[in-house]
Amino acid sequence: MDIISFVLSIWCFIIISIVVSMVRHDYMIRRKMKNVPAFKSYPLIGHALTLLRMTEQEQFEWHLSFLNHFKDGMCLVFLGSKPVVYLFKPEFLEIICPSTVNLEKGIVYELLKPWLGNGLLTSAGTRWFHDRKLIGPTFHFGILDQFAIVLSEKAEILTKCLEKEMEKCPGKAIDIFPFLINATLDIICETAMGVNIRAQEVVTEYSTTIHRLSKLTLERLFTPWYWMDWLYYSMPVGKEYKSALNILHGFTKEVINKKKVIRKTKNGKGDDTGKQRRKAFLDLLLDQNEKDNAPLTEDELRAQVDTFMFEGHDTTAVAINWALFCLGNNLEHQEKVHEELEQVFKDTQTPASVKELSQLKYLERVMKETLRLYPSVPIVERKLAENVKIGDVTIPEGTTVALSIIMAHRNPQVWPDPLKFDPDRFLPENSKHRNPYAYVPFSAGPRNCIGQRFALLVEKTVLTAILRKWRVKSVETEIPLVGSLILRPIGNVLLRFTPKTTR
Questions:
Q1: Record's CDD domains (predicted)?
Q2: Is residue 221 a contact partner of residue 485, using CB atoms and an 8 Å limit?
């Protein structure tokens, strides 16, 4: 009995010591953060209990409500004892974004590492600096121009797929997002890897797996107990995730190895007929890698290509979907787009060239305004590597700051009538006095999106192909949102399409 009492006493002492340590740690953090505005929270659990009681939609609406409650552009949220400081004032984003010190991403990005490894999205420090410098040249304008033919071909296949869908139920509103996802996947596979998987025409193991893995990743992000690897990978969903990873990683490695063999046998100069090949991003990356003093390993190459795939299809498809939703609810602006298209293309049905696309200035402003209201990535995180003074507050090293792009884009102090869709906000005369960090759909500074020019070229090409054939009308005027990595609608964006030859 004495031994049992002694053991119990030891365990009680250990438990009490742990609790005291946790309470002390929580107190010290809150003391450091006492000047940061925040909603009321509870010791140790913070706002976690409040958030767990909410649906995904309610969580995002709570996030957007910070704009009304915290006029100074800063808000503190506690996830347990972990503080996250939300920033949504342009002047505050201007402090964090250009920093070459505060480059490390937050915990959300750690959950992407099983898929993306230490690719450009998830890496930090000297690894990130090296890879950014290595990959940067593969995205310059001259290289993007060569992809115009691929983009037009895939956009044309998309319009044919939509025509078939409309023929099934003429006049019925349809959700085109699944078609957009397959189109952008087609585009990124051919431009990033040089592989035509025909995702819009046939069901392949790769396209099915990448769609499923995207859904599993989002589920994990919204389920905190899935964040523990030991628990997640012991469950059926975690085993499915691992199986999907093996398929995707195997496919990417196979493509890389085949590219290397071709380069050795043909020196990468052409096909058997001597015709010059159009290079994919992977070819260009391999070119750069061969010249580099510290070349990437096979796994590091795979991580970069998987990052291209991850970032290059989902976010662009979402942006196109939101643009059509906005035009379908703002028919006067849509009519101006149609007038511009007719001026540039006349009555021809030839694929759009880069030169013609560059003339579509009103469509460009429509795209910018859509990304203002519905940025594909609504929040980006940084983990501070040093103390940072923001306004009257010093945020301590090690704190995660969440740069809320969507709230910065909807801040009424910067954007009058912020929920109104108005492409003319981006006329030169209306933009010249605006803080450049008031509009950052692709983030800003050294960690901005390296593929933003490519993404905008894809978006403009696809929108042009659709709007040259049809007028669009949205069924809903408002759609609830959910945003973790990507800003998505809850439910489907339903659109009605009318051929341009009729009204």
A1: CYP4
A2: yes
